[in-house]
Amino acid sequence: MAASLSRALKLPGKKGSDLGEYDPLTQADSEDETEDDDLVLNYPRNGLSPAVAGLRDEEEFDEEEEELRAQREGAGREAGSGRGQGGAAEEKAARVRGAVRTAAFLLPLSCAALLVLLCAFLIPCPQGAPHWPQWERELGDTAGVTSPPVALWDVDGDGLEDVLIGVTNISNDSQPMNTQSKKFSVWALSGFGGQLLWQKSLRGPLFSVQCGLQTGSSNPLRWRETPDSSACVLISSGHMITVNASTGRTLWTAEIGAVESSAVLLPDLQGDAFPDLLIATLPADQVSDLALVLISGRSGALIGRPVNFNLTAQGKLIGPLLHETQTGAYYVLFGLGTVEAVSLSYIYSQATGRTAASRVRLKESSWERLRKSNSSSLIHISSGSEQVEFVLPLASCQAHSNLDAASALNSSRSAWILLCDSSSRLSALRASDTRTLWSLSLASIHTRPAAGHFNDDGVPDLLIHQSANGVRKVQMVDGARGRSLWEAEFVCPRLAVEDSSVLTASGQSVFLFWAGDPLTQTQNASKAAAAAEPVLRKLFLFHPFYPTILLQLSSTTDTVLTATVSYQAQQKDASYISVSSRPSSGRALGAQMLKTLSLRAAIAEAQIVRLTDASRDGKLSAFHINKFFRRLAFRQ
Questions:
Q1: Helical spans, DSSP H, in 332-489
Q2: Does pTM top 0.90 for this prediction?
Q3: What is the 3-class SS of 298-319, one letter each residue?
Q4: pLDDT digits (tens, 9 = 90+) for 154-184
Q5: Which helix (H) or strand (E) is 83 found in, with range?
Q6: For the purposes of burial, counting CB atoms within 10 Å of the CB of 216, is it exposed (0-12), middle (13-18) or buried (19 or more)?
Q7: CA–CA separation, 438 vs 466, rounded Å?
Q8: Which residues of the chain have pLDDT under 50?
């Protein structure tokens, strides 16, 4: 009934079936259809009255509407079911995509972590060339080592400096030994294990070996770069030989005469891009004049003629030593029991009759004022009437067997000159005007001091040892003021071996010296020395950071004859190379041994020796001492 009233009140016109919107375009048609509808409604069907027909139509319409609603609900359920199934599929696809992205992120990260672990633990990092902590080689049936061992450029490519040494072999058929029964040679030995790399026969005993000469460098202080461009100068009485450092091949030979000194490296005097050399000659009777000879570093030919100097003094041959002043002037120091100086330009002009190059013609005014007269070519350096034993620059490097930038005993640009005379008086002279800076009276000194850095004032200090009455006194002298910085007494080892210094990465030096057992203040030195039979020689290492501690690196009853230090840059290590003679009965010569000892390996196994009572330095535990010394790194 309500539906009928609703349709009866319905306005004419059509609405959208979906949104119920009014359509003005069909309003006219709707009015015509309304009239038709009125006719239909008022028309009696099947004999029924219009009211009854209207009720039947209403019921039929309600049924149709219910069926239509049911169909719509069914279609909605089907659509909802479809949408549910689609949402589940999309959710599953999203989970798969997330898993793929996570795997793509974690897989490279895992590979990177695995690579880091492989590099850190499984693949070993390069540690430099392996080397034996120590080795020794018997030098055969020899009559003696004719020259100290010299550190040689790495010839065999194992990362270690090799060793060059001159030896004298005795023939098996010799009766009394004479010159003809001896064979002289020079050996190049591997720094890895002492294997023979090359050897060269010589006509006479070898008393000087110097390596590092650059064959093709106009800078006299240029460091050697490759073994092929480095040469060694071998000097024996009467001649000089220059050989290739890696093969031993002869580069040139020079007949000089009575050579009495090592070679001095000079600037390039001839403009051929090769540094030149200077040596001193002196006959054995010392009647003839001392002469300085210039030699071409390229061919070995004499540059001009020998320059003679009529020296009235007689004594030990001093130098020659090249000294470069602060203004760049070159002077040669030499003498016989005294120290004289002469300009390099004067030597060149007297030898060749030509004027030297402009950079060699420089003069030092403060030195020139020391000349006694304008007619004299010599400048008197040493003062007093006492004989001079040796002269050396106050420099921290003592590689006097090298002709390179590390050489300090035969070519010096140091601002200091150190003199020692026969009365065991040690003096330091200022290089600018040769005035005495300090002087120190000592007991007998038989070897050169070892220069190194004990304090941090930048001036090298001196380690010296004195021996008297069975006691060896080892002392550290301040290079700037001449005062004692440290000293200790030991049983005398009955050796005359030069002490050594090695520079560390911190800028301080460690010092190496031979001595017996340390003596305390309560010990009787003579009794301790008498009880020490056979004599036990000990190699000690001393560091300025621990002045009351020594490290005993080795001990032996052999007689140590000579020693030197070589460096291994890759390992930040240094090796102590020594030549010693085994004990023998009677007057027979003992077998001579060449030994090398890695300092870092020796420090790891060293014995700690305390110079004071343990109660006084009890805070210095062995653990901290060992930790400090094992972290040392050495450099040139």
A1: 344-352, 365-368
A2: no
A3: CCCCECCCCEEECCCCCCCEEE
A4: 777 777 788 888 887 766 554 454 445 778 8
A5: helix 50-117
A6: middle
A7: 19
A8: 1-6, 8-48, 51-52, 55, 126-131, 174-175, 177-179, 217-225, 398-401, 404-410
